[in-house]
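One chain is below:
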Amino acid sequence: MEKMNLKQMIIIGGLFAFVTILFLTPKNEDATFWYSIAVGGLMVTFWLFEVVPIYVTALFPFIFAIPLGVLEPSDLTSAYGHKYIYLFFGGFMLSLGLEKWDVHKQIAERIIRMVGTSKTRIILGFLIATGLLSMWISNTATALMMLPMAMAVLSNVEHEKKSRFSVFLLLSVAYGASIGGMATLVGSPPNILMAGLLEDKYGITVDFLTWMKIGLPLSLILLTVVFLFFYLLLGKERKVGVHEVEHERKPWTANQKRVMALFTVIVLLWSFRTVLTKYTGINYSDEGVAVLGAILLFFLPGAKKSEKLIEWKDTTRLPWGILILFGGGMALAKMLEINGVIEQLSLVFHEYASAPLYLLLGVLVIIAIFGTEIMSNMALVSVFVPVVAEFAIDTDYSIIQLCMPITLAASCAFMLPVGTPPNAIVFSSGLLKINQMARTGFVLNLIGVFIVVMFSLIFIG
């Protein structure tokens, strides 16, 4: 008889605990409280160990919530049909258009050429290019785009036994993708999730521009810190040049210009929504603009006859799973909130109610950064943000000042390949050892804690 592997043991153990709670819970007014814990515990366990794809786990509320009475059908459907899902959908469609016509390559190659060919300048170029792209394109897609370029550069480098350049160049792709995603509301899934959670429960609106005012400066600071950290560790290699990778400099094509023009218009509409509404009287939403951009991609003609910028067949490459994951996170948070679990969990932090704000933020950010090393940042935000928001209400802290640092910190998993998809993608190159990523990432995690806390104290009110 075959021995069970770890994932099988976790599945059996998780389901056993789930069923045990259901059968042992008395059928009284507290039953839904324990049923919510059972469903939530099962989801978090499966997310933590990824025993099945995380997108599959995100569908659990569909099969458990209504039969167990922990959510009404209207609450369940509103979670999976939330307006921010359409903001993400539109953003994904725009990034799909950029990818299809290789706009990202035009941008990245020009940045890399501009900064120069010394090792430090190449690392800087990759950090800037990856971070800039990740502001608008998913972190995973950005890392997948940039990794082949990094590999091409490394193929032109004379490999030295103690050279750190290859390690830092690859890590600049992973870290740049994660940090760049912090800059905008559509840059990383946890950003949208937090905005949705706070609007649904507390009526707090975090729009595109509001997020960018905080996320962009913090992202730029962290990118600068990562570069300086790599610069210091490069030592004597700093001034060593690298043979330029031979790429034919291609002019912008008509389709690239059209996609870029549409993308620019959408970003401007997002960024200046308040001003435009004030002077034109036209009231619109960020998600409405995102969907408008997605629809226009199907209408705008390409350079060739009967060609459109996007065809429906192109949407097979859309990360539909992220949309489901967002819905699952919203459903889980709603379930835990309605049935009193969030309120009870928030009591854990009450011992910090009289603590200085910097200490409280330090504890929360440390939990977020190191917690997301071993579990999905979406899962962490969907559970942690509602708990902390409830604590903030009880103790008169600012909800934004506590919840936004947590969400931003959830993008700072720098230690392990399982921490974020960009880490895993770069690690798959086979040129990195896990101890190299862990050593470098641990120091950057600690630096990240300090920067996020200090930035939050100064700029987030």
Notes: The first helix runs from residue 6 to 24. Residues 1-52 form one domain. DSSP finds 22 helices and no strands in the chain.
